[in-house]
Backbone:
């Protein structure tokens, strides 16, 4: 037993160094996957690698600092600079989450301790140990490089904090485009969209940090650059927005903010030279008395570091961040043409070019959205064995993210995506259109008689409502009505989801626009996914109990009323059950509540909306005593599709899609900036793209007004 413990203790540092190096390689290969989709096997490897890279390197440094001094350990101590490099990770990751950037100030103490441990280990085993030979200058060279990269990683965390980004914007002057966009109906390609995103990046940085540039004129004098950008239509603006969000990801979650500076380029130019010098010195160093395994490990670390340093140098020089750096440095602007040639050469060496159309494709949003349809979830059980396993071992939140975001998630069909973004862009442009002032009349207006006072409605007493032990959703609604407060946003989404599904399942089966039906279903399921799985991306209170109560009530109704010999689909049968229960009223009074209302007010309201919309397809709907508007909650975000003249199916679908687009825009612009920033590191979100589109639309209106 003692010999086993001695063997483990002897090889512990070597194992930690190798594991730290392996974790570094995993981060290098898979960290970029978070930019498009933060789920699947890659993320399963990424999180443990990020945690273990820090843990293994710290433990190895502590072990070397406190261990005994011997010639055999001398070569192991030479690995301390590599441990410092592995602690901060490769250039494509600096933070795993927003919280890492927020806690950047606390990293100062930890960084100080780790650097002191590395210095002490180097001094103890190599400087004082004696007989170091050429290993001594090689150690100093690699130690200097390791300290530089370690400090650079700590600075990247600091600069990725939203508060520090906001401070940097105070010294920034907005710029116009540094080149002419394509015209004549040509579509903006991804490469040009990325270069335009660099010039207009201040829009996204200002949005994420709540910083307004006001009416500061562009530094570069191209008066029509904004108009040229928007002449591309929503497709061109969407590409630029997606590229801007990708650049924001670089600032917050990678080392781009420190790599693409004068000091950062200097470190990348020096790294291959320093590593090659250290490799040459180690080649000349006598290996007598050293373990063969330690010599092999040292060669692996040095050669791998040299190869990765060359790769990082070429990647940094070919990055479009270098284009932005050259463009902002007056004495380098003449090198723009040479940079384009260098970028083309480096991109041609990338093996991924065999599988993607353009080198910038990885920067665009994946177009994948999560889906959660309450009707399908309540009428179908989860059949995937893997999903059941995840549900058993993970928390409910992680399982729902996996089930509805990864397994059920889908990429938006191009025809549906085009319709959706076209509607969004129309809404945004109409919202920011300058209003024409009304002409003043040439004659004085006669004072209007004051309107007669409406009879005061007896309002419910707040004390009685709150004191009721049955205080719940329906009682909270009474409080909101008493205080004249609109409904919570999650309540609106739940109600409109029920209304939409019942309407689509029971609508007449005549010819209708496929893309409208598809767009409505996908947007409805996506908004329900956000309510159920990512409520932090929505404005207002996070009412998990409201969603759970609605889901449980719908399940109970399905299991208590489903037929074993029904020829229709399960979802259609459930929709008919809801319509029938909404028609059933236990009391004799015409305005009495339905039986469905006793189960769930959300289900009752949504079904009532759907019933009125279905009836309006054939006969005019006019409010009467039996179906007065007071029975329905005042959802100001929804259009009035239930009362009025007869509408055909296409007009009704247009109205329903319009309502979902409005809810999407409302959720996007009212979501907190921190939530947008967190989701940016998890593959991005549709609501974040719509939010930045709104920021561009507002600036476009301001530019045209000026």
Residues:
């Amino acid at each position: 037993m003692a010999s086993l413990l001695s063997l483990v203790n002897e090889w512990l540092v070597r194992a930690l160094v190798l594991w730290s190096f392996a974790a570094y390689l995993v981060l290098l290969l898979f960290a970029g996957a978070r930019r498009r989709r933060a789920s699947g096997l890659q993320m399963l490897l990424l999180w443990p690698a990020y945690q273990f890279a820090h843990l293994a390197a710290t433990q190895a440094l502590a072990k070397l600092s406190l261990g005994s001094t011997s010639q055999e350990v001398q070569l192991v101590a030479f690995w301390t600079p590599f441990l410092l490099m592995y602690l901060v990770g490769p250039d494509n990751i600096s933070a795993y989450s927003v919280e890492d950037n927020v806690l950047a100030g606390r990293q100062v103490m930890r960084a100080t301790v780790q650097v002191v441990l590395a210095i002490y280990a180097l001094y103890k085993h190599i400087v004082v140990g004696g007989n170091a030979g050429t290993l001594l200058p090689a150690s100093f060279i690699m130690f200097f490089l390791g300290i530089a990269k370690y400090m650079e990683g700590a600075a990247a965390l600091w600069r990725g904090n939203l508060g520090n980004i906001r401070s940097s914007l105070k010294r920034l002057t907005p710029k116009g485009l540094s080149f002419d966009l394509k015209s004549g109906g040509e579509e903006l390609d991804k490469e040009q969209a990325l270069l335009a995103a660099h010039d207009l990046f201040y829009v996204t940085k200002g949005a994420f940090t709540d910083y307004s540039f006001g009416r500061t004129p562009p530094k570069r004098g191209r008066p029509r650059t904004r108009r040229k950008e928007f002449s591309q239509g929503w497709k061109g603006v969407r590409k630029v927005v997606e590229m801007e969000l990708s650049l924001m990801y670089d600032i917050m979650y990678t080392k781009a903010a420190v790599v693409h500076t004068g000091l950062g380029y200097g470190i990348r130019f020096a790294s291959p030279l320093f590593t090659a010098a250290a490799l040459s010195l180690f080649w000349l160093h006598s290996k007598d008395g050293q373990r063969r395994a330690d010599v092999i490990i040292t060669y692996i670390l040095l050669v791998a570091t040299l190869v990765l340093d060359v790769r990082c140098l070429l990647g940094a020089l070919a990055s479009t961040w270098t284009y932005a750096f050259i463009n902002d440095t007056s004495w380098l602007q003449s090198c723009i043409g040479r940079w384009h040639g260098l970028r083309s050469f480096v991109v041609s060496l990338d093996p991924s070019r065999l599988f993607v159309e353009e080198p910038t494709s990885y920067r665009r949003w994946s177009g994948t959205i999560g889906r959660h349809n309450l009707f399908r979830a309540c009428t179908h059980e989860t059949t995937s064995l893997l999903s059941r396993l995840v549900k058993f071992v993970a928390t409910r939140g992680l399982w729902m993210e996996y089930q509805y975001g990864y397994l059920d998630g889908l990429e938006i069909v191009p025809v549906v995506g085009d319709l959706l973004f076209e509607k969004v862009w129309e809404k945004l442009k109409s919202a920011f259109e300058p209003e024409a002032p009304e002409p003043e009349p040439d004659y004085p207006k006669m004072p209007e008689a004051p309107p007669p006072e409406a009879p005061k409605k007896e309002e419910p007493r707040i004390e009685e409502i709150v004191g009721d032990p049955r205080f719940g959703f329906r009682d909270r609604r009474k409080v909101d009505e008493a205080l004249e407060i609109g409904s919570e946003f999650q309540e609106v989404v739940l109600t409109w989801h029920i209304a939409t599904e019942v309407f689509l399942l029971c609508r007449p089966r005549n010819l209708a626009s496929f893309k409208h039906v598809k767009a409505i279903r996908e947007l409805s399921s996506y908004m329900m996914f956000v309510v159920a799985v990512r409520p932090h991306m929505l404005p207002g209170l996070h009412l998990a109990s409201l969603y759970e109560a609605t889901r449980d009530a719908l399940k109970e109704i399905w299991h208590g009323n489903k037929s074993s010999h029904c020829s229709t689909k399960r979802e259609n049968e459930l929709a008919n059950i809801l319509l029938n229960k909404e028609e059933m009223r236990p009391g004799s009074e015409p305005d009495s509540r339905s039986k469905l209302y006793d189960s769930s007010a959300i289900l009752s309201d949504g079904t009532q909306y759907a019933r009125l919309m279905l009836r309006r397809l054939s006969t005019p709907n006019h409010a009467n005593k039996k179906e007065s508007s007071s029975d329905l909650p005042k959802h100001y975000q929804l259009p009035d599709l239930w009362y009025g003249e007869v509408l055909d199916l296409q007009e009704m679908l247009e109205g329903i899609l319009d309502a979902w687009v409005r809810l999407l825009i409302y959720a996007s612009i009212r979501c907190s900036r921190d939530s947008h920033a967190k989701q940016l590191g998890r593959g991005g979100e549709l609501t974040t793209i719509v939010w930045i589109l709104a920021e561009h639309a507002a600036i476009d209106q301001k530019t045209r007004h000026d």
About this structure: Strands lie at 368-369, 410-411. The longest strand covers residues 368-369. Residues 384 and 403 are 9 Å apart (CA to CA).
